[in-house]
Amino acid sequence: MDFSIFNLITMIGGLAMFLYGMEVMGDGLKQSSGGALKRVLGKLTQNALLGVLTGALVTAVIQSSTATIVLTVGLIGAGILNLRQATSIVLGANIGTTITAQIIRLMDIESGGAWFLEIFKPSTLAPVALIAGIIILMFLKKEKLFSVGRICIGFGLLFIGIMTMSDAVEPLSESEAFVNALTAVSNAPLLGLLVGLVLTVIVQSSSAMVGILQALSSTGAITFSLVYPVIMGINLGTCVTTAMVCSIGTSKDAKRTGMVHILFNTIGTILFMIAMTLLRHFGAFGDLWTSVSNSGSIANFQTLFNLITAVVLLPFTNLLVKASLSIIKPDKVKPEEYPELNALDEKLYIAPSMALSEATRSVSVMCKAARDNLELGYQQLIGYTQERAAEIDAREEKIDGFADKADNFFIGLSKHTDIPADNRQLNMLMQSVPNIERVGDYATNFNELAEKLARQGLSFSQHAADELGILFDAVNEILKLTIEALDKDDTSIAKRIEPLEEVIDDMVILLKDRHTERLRQGVCAINSGIVFIEVLTYMERAADQCSGIAMLMLARSNETIQLNHHEYLRSLHADGGAKYKSEFEKRHEQYMVKLKNLAD
Fold first, then answer.
1. Any alpha helices (H) in 78-223, and if so which ranges?
2. What pLDDT score does 469 carry?
C-alpha cells in the first residue's frame, strides 16, 4: 500500500493529538506540584549535582526542557535563583525531557499472552487512562483530584496520538523513495543533524520530534546511523526556542541562562558528533550502525546522550557561567529597589501554580514598598525635606507601575488557572492590589500635607507629634502584619489584623476628641490642626485597607465572609471569641493605654 495524502493527514492528526496530550498531562502535573516546584528549585540548587537532578526532575514533571528554562528565567527575575544555580538546572533539563521517549517505548511491549503485560501495552493503557480521567473529571468532581484527571486524559491522548502516527506511517516501509531518503541521511550525519534541528524548530518540541522518530521506527527502516545525528539535531533545535524566550524583556542573568543552555547543547553536540564519527570510521561496535532501531533503543540513546553530556560538562559549570558573563556583559547601573516587583513575567504562565505563588510574593513586596513609603511620608510630617519628597514620588511611581502590571498579569493568568482554590487565591490578589495602592497614595498625601506645613512655616506641637508617633507605631504594626500574612499566605496571621484595626479606630476617635478640645482652647493653630485631623484620617484608612486585605484572605475559605463581610466584622467586634478578645486586649494595652497615659 502506498503512502497517500490521507496517511499524511492522519499522521499530522496523530501528532496534534500527541502534542495536545503532552500539554494536558503537563498541565495536570504542574497543577498538582506547582507550589512544590518552586520550593524544589529554590532549595535543591545550592549544590551543582543536586541542581542537575532538580532540573531533570522538574523537566520530567512538566514535560518540556524549554518550559523548565522559562521557569528558571522567571525565578531569576524574582531573585529566587542566581545564575550559577540556574546553570545546573539547565544541565539537568535535557535529561528530564527524555522521560517522554521512555514512556513511548511501552509500544515495544510484547505480551506473549501474559495478561499483566497486556495491561501495559499502549493499546490497553491508553483507553484505561482515558476512562479513569473522564470518570474523575465528570463524576467525582473533587478539587484535589482534578489535576489527576487531567494527567490521565493527557496520558491516554499521548499514546493514542503516537499509535495513530505509527499506523499512518506504516505504508512507508514499502516506499522505495522513503528508504532511499533514509539511506542518504544515514550516510551523511551532518544532514541528519540539520534535519533534526530544522524540524524541532518547526514543531517547537524536542519530545514530539523524538516521538515522531519513534513512530517512524515502526516501519523497520530506521537504523542507528540515522538516529544518532537526528537526536543531536533535535537537541540543538531546542536552543532556538530557548534563545527566543530568554531574549525578550528579561534581565541580564536571564539572558545568560539562555546562553548557558545554547553553549551546553552546542558543545555537547559537537563533542558527541566527533566521538560518534570517529567510532563509526574505525568500525567500533560492529553492526550497531546498520542495526534497525525501535522506540526503546531510540529512547535509550537519547537518555544516554544527555546523561553523558551532563556528566562531561558538569565539572565545567563555572566556565560556562564565565563564558555567558563574557558574552552578555553587565550594565553599569545602580541595583534596582524591590526587584521582586519585576517578577511577574508572562513566561510563568507555563506553571500556573508557580505563577500564582510568585504573584502572591510580589504583592507582599508591593505592600512592603507601600509601608516603607508611608513611613517616609510620616517622617516628612516631622521634618520636611526635598530629597525625601523626591524619594516618595519615585517609589509611588514604582508602586503604581506594579499595580498596572499586576492587573494585566492576573487577567492573563486567569485564563490558565482551572483549580477552584487557585482561582480564589487569584481573586484575593486582584482585589488586594488596589487596597495596597491606596496605602501608597496616603504616603503621597502625607508628603503634600508636610509640604503645606513647611510652606506656611507651621508644625505640630510636641504633644500632637507624640500622639501621632504612637498612632503611627500601631499603623506600622498592622502593615507589618499584613505583609507577613501575604508573604507566608497565613490566615492565622491575617486573623490578628482586625483586633489591631479596631484598636486603631478607638485611638483615632480619642485623638480627634482631644484635638478638638485643644482647638477650642486655642492651644493649637487652626491650619496645623486641620492638617492633624487629615493625617488621622489617612492613618485610619491605611488600617482599613489592611483589614480589607485580611478579610479577602479569610474569605477564601469562609462562605460567611464571602456573602457579607460587613456583617461578619460586626459580629466579630461584638463577640469575636477568646482569641480575638485576647489579641484586642494585648493591642489595647500596647497602644491605647500608652496614648491615654500621654498627659495633656
1. 83-96, 99-104, 115-119, 122-135, 146-169, 176-186, 189-203, 206-216
2. 93
Tell me the fold of 347-457: Methane Monooxygenase Hydroxylase; Chain G, domain 1 (1.20.58)
Domain map (residue ranges) of the chain: 5-327, 347-457, 460-600
State which amino acid sits at residue 381. Answer: L
List Cβ neighbours of 376 (8 Å cut-off, separation of 6 or more): 388, 391, 392, 395, 443, 447
Q: Can you give the pLDDT at residue 207?
A: 80
3-state SS class at 342: helix
Beta-bridge partner residues of 292:
223
What are 114's three cell numbers?
A: 501474559
- Would the CA dihedral through 169, 174, 178, 184 be positive or negative? positive
- Helix boundaries (H) for 489-555: 491-494, 497-521, 526-555
pTM, two decimals, is: 0.71
Is the dihedral angle over the CA atoms 192, 194, 200, 203 positive or is it negative?
negative
CA distance 449 to 338: 26
Is the domain spanning 460-600 CATH 2.60.120.260? The answer is no
Quote the pLDDT of residue 541.
96
Same fold? 347-457, 460-600? yes
Strand partners, 223: 292
Q: For residue 485, which of 430, 411, 541, 548 has the smallest C-alpha distance?
A: 548
b/e map 521-556, b = 16+ CB within 10 Å: eeebbeebbebbeebbebbbbbbbbbbbbbbbbbbb
Cell, residue 106: 511501552
The whole-angstrom separation of Cα 582 and Cα 577 is 9
Could you give the CA distance from residue 561 to residue 542 in angstroms, rounded to a whole number?
21
At 441, list the grid cell. Answer: 497614595
Rounded to an integer, what distance in angstroms lies between the CA atom of residue 316 and that of residue 324?
A: 13
Q: Are 468 and 474 in contact (CB under 8 A)?
A: no
CA distance 546 to 486: 11
Beta-bridge mates of residue 21: none
Rounded CA separation 404/397 (Å): 11
Collapsed DSSP state (helix, strand, coil) of residue 164: helix
- Count of H-run helices and E-run strands, the chain: 26, 0
Q: Which amino acid is at 203?
A: V
| 10-residue mean pLDDT series, the chain (600 residues) | 77 83 74 60 67 82 70 70 82 84 72 56 80 85 75 84 80 73 81 87 79 83 88 85 61 80 89 89 82 88 90 88 85 69 78 82 94 95 92 94 92 85 90 96 95 88 88 96 93 92 94 84 78 94 95 83 71 75 91 80
Q: Give the pLDDT confidence score for residue 396 in this predicted structure.
A: 94
CA–chain centroid gap for 578, Å, is: 39
Q: Cell digits for 45?
A: 540548587
The count of residues in the chain is 600
Contact of 355 with 349, CB cutoff 8 Å = yes
- Please report the pLDDT score of residue 449 as a whole number: 93
